[in-house]
Amino acid sequence: MITRSSPPEARRATGPRSVPLPGRQEQCLAIDELTDSVRAGRSAVLVLVGEAGIGKTRLLEYAAGAAADLRIAQVAGWEPEARLAYAALHRLLRPYLDRTARLPSPQRDALAAAFGLAAGVRADRFLVGLATLTLLADVACGLPLVCLVDDAHWLDRETVAVLAFIARRLRAERIGLMIAARDEPVPPPALDGLPRLPIAGLPDRAARELLALAAPGRIAPLVAGRMIAETRGNPLALIELTGQLSADQLAGGASLPDRLPLSQGMRAHFLRRVRIMPATTRSLLLIAAVAPADDIAVIWRTAALLGLPDDAPDPAVAAGILTAAPAFAFRHPLIASAVYSGAPAAQRRRVHAGVAEATDRDADPDRRAWHLAEATAGLDEDVAAELERASPRARARGGYPMLARFLSRAAELTPHPQRRAGRLLGAAQAHLAAGDPVAAGRRLEQAASGPHTPAMRAAAQQTRAALAWFGGEVATVVSAMMLEAATEPDLPAQLSHGILFDALTAAMLSRQHTAGTTIADVARAARRAPGRGQAPASTTRLLLDAFATRVLDGFTPAVPHLRAAMVALRTDRELAHGAIPFAAIGNWAAQELLDDEAHEAILRHAASLARERGALHALETALHGLASCATWAGDFARADALYAEAADVGTITGTGDDGSAARQIELLAWRGREAPVRAAADCAFNDWEARRGLAVVGNHARNALAILELGHGRYQQALAWTLPGFHDDVIGQGNRMLPNLIEAAVRAGDRPSAQAALARLAERASASGTAWALGVLARSRALLTDDDGAHARYCEATEALAGSRMATELARTHLLHGEWLRRRKRRTEARTHLRIAHDAFTDMGATAFAERARVELLATGQHGRPRTVPAGHDLTSQETRVAALAATGATNTEIATQLFVTASTVEYHLNKIFRKLDITSRRQLARALAAPPD
């Protein structure tokens, strides 16, 4: 059997603990620490980085000996498989696939799709990563596990991403992960930030010891010195040189060549050794370098198709190029690389063609199509079409990156200009979905030169708009060409609606900053799109109708459309579209109607779908929305946890901390944190609004600043921040701002502004009819009522808001009611409402509003209870997330699924949380987290 790595099946090493390698004591100590940590019940990660031949593989062998009493799993990257998604992961996990029945069904299905074992399911790499983590943690339950990964620079990109995903989540699973990768040109970027151990050349003394062992006879000190200097102590180069130089040269009796055969010469050396093999052996070696490493049947079938004898591998075994049976393997990966790169192009194509013919068309259509493509010189529509037909399976196995590779290669083989442009356009969209806008831009530019159908022109415009999104240029997304393309008479309705949804969304986000058109122009184009009024309508069509009506006809005519869209958003299984997840915009319908229940339900549904499918961009968006829900509900600790989780997801997707303060500005404002709020507002105004054209972010910041000023009792400043929002009337934000404007205007003495805002709120709250809307309407009317009728309106507001999730608005209503009663000299009644408000704001952590209530209580002759902060509340962001979820009653398994970790990691964090909060059970978590630390 021929393989290119150690057999992947897990094993129990039985030999003694490894003896430290000469010159590698420091590295061996680090490896010992890793294995000792795993034995002690913890997890550990180490990435070995160094040039080819530096000894990384030998250190992994030492690690296998050091973990002799543990379970070991091994895999090595292989250059010909580097473009085949999850190829190495399959080899690593193959011994454990019988355990997949224990995985949650979404994880199990994703892993099966990644390995080509299931059809109709997407192999999202984050679900695959979570499945791999869960599976390995299950394996390690019986005996601690050490995973050794060699030649990570030749792993397929998807496997590297999964390994990096796992490495960043290991805590208490009893898993050790060691990864070896070259440092030239650079290690895989996915491994950045993991604990790294650089491997340099051997020190002089150790290098001389190695030469003494490797040389067939005596080696002169001066010769050894030159060899060490020119190899920089590279062990493999030293060993290979002892075989290249004659005994006289090594002993100093004959002169050395001007240039020793090093680095590139090493590869040339391997090629020289291969080229002296018989032709049949060279052909077999090339087959082994091309065919799937884990499919020996394909290797032998290909060999038979090419007429090779059964004894073809024997000379390579005898020469040490392949290891001995029963499991043949290349002695060093450089040999395989040299075999493939050194073979004539025609011979490589011949072998690829043989492998394609030997591959089962039904079992592995994507692998077969890929090898057919590699076997093709020039243009070939039949092969291009087969690649395109196989691309959905490639996507199911390797996600959008694999789809992009297949469509790009298909385009390269396509003779027909229009078909070529269509495949390039598909590749651009796949690159964009994979998060690679640079590659998407290149493919889109290549597609632009070909003839386009109306549908292709529209799709190209949509892709250009998406590229603008990725570049942060939201104001430039909409263009006249985009609207023209979207309204082509023969365009499929789904594509037309999708383009118009992107355009209308961009216009609503950028508003006055929209370049080349207006939000009204886009709304009119959306209204003209085919399919309006037809049933059943897609969620996209419903949202288009709702927002177009809202822009062109006003709030009240839009209410039925907004409600229909909200109903669809609660159940739609396809909540992602184009460049923006529906959840980012769809919940505006709920905010416009001041429907807190629908708002949270839509976002919970979107987050659940995103977790299920590993759609992290959509998940990040939904988490930010849910954090706003938690803020309005007065659960600031939960909001913190959601923002922290969103930040963690952003790290994975590459958005990182981009504008995180601006996103959290409303929570900061409720907490009364003046300096952070103003810094976040500067970011919102200067970066998000002025530079990127996102007007809604600036408007959101103004509303947050108004909340900050209201908390501190600075009503004139609050009014200044709310008046621009009243005039702009931003969809999804303008109605939320109205109660703030009314309170600020009344207290600042600007009754005309308050009455104008109340008239708008009365119309819209009555049309909406939600508890939130009717509650703030009654409170606002009370503020403008000069007689004793205000009392009844305040009571009406309290009753309505008590039936909503809006704890912040309910507490504000009690505060305003108490202030009104105190001014009416009704101190006893005032104390009741002011104490309720003070206690609620204190428990939330809304310090400015709590202080405002405390001062009012003092004026009635009573003191508010002091705010207490739990001792030792120094939780990390991950601990905060775990604690917040556990406080809601979630099990360890449920928490692990949400946070993409294992149940044992959750237990590990909970133990630390209990110590820090000085509690002993989950039942105490909610109270301990009620107030954030000072």
Give start-end ranges of low-pLDDT stretches: 1-18, 868-872
Share of β-strand residues: under 5%
C-alpha end-to-end distance = 65 Å
Molecular shape: globular
Q: CATH top level of the domain at 2-198? A: Alpha Beta
Return the CATH architecture of the domain at 2-198.
Answer: 3-Layer(aba) Sandwich
Q: Please provide the count of β strands.
A: 10
**What do we call the CATH topology of the domain at 2-198?**
Rossmann fold
How many strands, which pairing sense, and closed or not: the largest β-sheet? 6 strands, mixed
Number of H- or I-type helical stretches: 46
Decide which structural class fits the backbone.
Answer: mainly alpha
Query: Kindly state the mean pLDDT as a whole number?
Result: 83
CATH H-level name of the domain at 2-198... which superfamily?
P-loop containing nucleotide triphosphate hydrolases
Within the largest sheet, what's the order of strands?
2-4-5-6-3-7
Helix percentage: 55-70%
What is Rg? 33 Å
Textual characterization of the structure:
By secondary structure, this protein is mainly alpha-helical. Among the domains are: 2-198, 3-Layer(aba) Sandwich (Rossmann fold); 204-262; 295-324 and 341-437, no CATH class; 454-553, no CATH class; 877-928, Winged helix-like DNA-binding domain superfamily/Winged helix DNA-binding domain (Arc Repressor Mutant, subunit A, Orthogonal Bundle). 64% of the residues lie in helices and 4% in strands. Helix 12 (279-290) packs across helix 15, helix 23 (493-510) packs across helix 25 (539-553) and helix 36 (734-748) runs parallel beside helix 38. The model is unreliable at 1-18 and 868-872 (pLDDT under 50). This is LuxR family transcriptional regulator. InterPro entries: AAA_16, P-loop_NTPase, Sig_transdc_resp-reg_C-effctor, Tscrpt_reg_LuxR_C, WH-like_DNA-bd_sf.
